Amino acid sequence: MARLIFFWAIALALISIVNATTLTRLFKNQFNSKRNLFALNKRALSPQLGPFTFPQKVDHFDWNNHATFPQRYWVNSTNYRPGGPIIFFNVGESDASGFTDYLIEGETSLLAQRLGGVVIVFEHRYYGESNPVPVPLGIPVSFWQKTEPGDPGPFEEFCQAFNNATTPSAQVAAYASWTTAYAANACQNQTQDDYFGTHDPKASKCTNTTLNNDDRSWLWQTCLEFGYWQTAAPKGHLTLISRLVTPDYFQRQCQLFFPVSILSSKPRTNYINEKFGGWKLEADHIFWINGEFDPWRSLSVAAPNAPTRLSTEKSPNVLIKDAVHVWDAFWSPTTTIPEPIVEVHNQLVASLSGWLKNFNTI
């Protein structure tokens, strides 16, 4: 049986299931093609890495439904050593073709090199070209989660706008100036009303039902399953976001995108938490990694108000100081990585190495 390391969170609402035997067969076809996979001094990937497709079941719960659709994936087996694991990266929120760098860089590639594994980048259904049906079923994720190590990013630019603003009036003016510049850049070819508006059902973002529409697919998951609304902090806590931005503010917009007849009054968050454990999930051989300032931390097991979770040998729990969204995923053989991230990588490799040695007894 092939050994699987599931990397990053798998979106639960539209989960795609592939068994270990299938994955083993997929990468064995490549195992003998280790040379000339990458063009010299170029980031372009060789076609030998993909994309490939396989016939995925449309419905895993109806045994009488045998319909399938082509689901995309990419494979890099250049680091594989007999007995090595599969580093399985399920790209759960986007067209996976934008994440193929993880075949040769990033935490996935580091794990493959250190553990002798195979990297598989897998495209989630209803994203990119992995669509179960030929007809489609957004709101952009908060901009500051895109900050990267060594890159000031939008959030720091936001803070820098206030450097010389020492009075309330100057701070209001600085905020207005920054907002104007950000809005002009974000809207691109759309009007500000069309891009930022939340009341017009005829706005292009609401009526765009074409396939390969990441924003719409993600909104479908949040409206029906996850919630995941990035709202203001609770009363009594400092907040960067207006207190007018509430769960109801986001939920109201769902009916602009999808038929009211198929929407519930709120996402099925209670069902999801009960089924999968929520903050109380207890399972061995999960390495929990979070960033101290990740905007998604409040939804993780490292949330400040989550039950205390001990870090154990079978279930390490690490919070990277000063880190934000997915900083642990950054790694490159030609780039100096900040020491806190290096430490987490070393801990991760050590834990996985130990688990793999004992795989047959797990």
TrEMBL record:
Gene3D superfamilies: alpha/beta hydrolase (3.40.50.1820). Transmembrane segments: none annotated. The keyword Hydrolase applies. InterPro entries: AB_hydrolase_fold, Peptidase_S28. Residues 1-20 form the signal peptide. Keywords: Carboxypeptidase, Glycoprotein, Hydrolase, Protease, Signal. GO terms for molecular function: carboxypeptidase activity; dipeptidyl-peptidase activity; serine-type exopeptidase activity. GO terms for biological process: proteolysis. Pfam families: Peptidase_S28. The keyword Chaperone does not apply. Belongs to the peptidase S28 family. This is Serine carboxypeptidase S28-domain-containing protein. It comes from Jimgerdemannia flammicorona.
